[in-house]
Amino acid sequence: MGHKEDYASRKDEAMALPKEDVLNPYMPTSIYCQEAEDLVVWATEDQAKLAAAGLPENYLVDIPVWVGALHQAQSLWMREKQTQKMAEQEWAEKSPEAADFRDQLIHAFRFIFRKEERILKLVSEIAEGSSDADLVSDLNDLSVLGLAHLDKLPIAALGEEDMNRAAQLSDELSNLRAKANGVKDKSNEYSDMRNRMYTKLKELVDEVRVVGKFVFWRDAKRVKGYASAYNRRRNKAQKQSVESSEE
Is the dihedral of CA 52, 57, 61, 67 positive or negative? Predict the structure, then answer.
């Protein structure tokens, strides 16, 4: 099966995993998947001995399927992260101009309506808040207010075109914010699924390693294949770091 098929075949089982049991990968998933595949190749040579020690026969068959599922889950998550990054970047490019225009309108309206207490109070209320949602609503509120008093706008060199621009910016930013938030939610879903696939794969990998280390505890050559090369390198680096700091 391909990665997509592996993912589809294991999705329901992964979703059934209790939330409190879901783990975050402690190493890059690409490395973990490669180590899992290498482990299957290594352990297949010892399959009879591992089975005699209680390793279920299906484990070495199931690991490659979970590896494919994890690969696909990781790819889906990375795709959504990139889409979210692009949406956030577009917001970062467009929002400063919109915020500046909002500030210009508030400045102008405070001058235009300086003698009209009720409207001036409304302008002050619009000016409160600095969140993304505030920016979207402020532009729309200012547009509505300005369109209701078109006859007074020329004193601040404003007109209907400016009010329409405010409304348009509000619509554009609202759609962009909704897109970014929607992608973020989707990204979180894929992140959770990636973690679930990893957790299920880890259950199998851990058991193979434990059984292998038990069976070959006196065989240095064979037992080495049941340990993580990534962890071995990391532990060595940490040990060298500690030794260096103590010198």
Answer: negative
Q: What pLDDT, in 10s, does the model give residues 183-211?
A: 777 778 999 999 999 999 999 999 999 99
Instruction: Report the alpha-carbon distance of residue 98 to residue 102 in Å, rounded.
Output: 6
DSSP annotation of 8: H
CA distance 102 to 104: 5
Q: How many CB atoms lie within 10 A of CB 117?
A: 9
Q: How far is CA 159 from CA 121, 126, 137, 139, 163, in A?
A: 22, 19, 20, 15, 7
Q: Which pTM value belongs to this model? A: 0.75
Contact at 8 Å (CB) between 201 and 65?
no
Low-confidence ranges of the chain (pLDDT < 70): 1, 237-247
Residue 145 CA to residue 182 CA, distance in Å, equals 30
The answer to whether 120 and 106 have CB atoms below 8 angstroms apart is: no
Query: pLDDT digit string (tens) for 50-78?
Result: 999 999 989 999 999 999 999 999 999 99
Helix (H, G, I), strand (E, B) or coil at 189: helix
The answer to whether the CB of 43 falls within 8 A of the CB of 50 is yes
Alpha helices in 148-215 (DSSP H): 160-215
Cα separation, 185 vs 55, in Å, equals 39
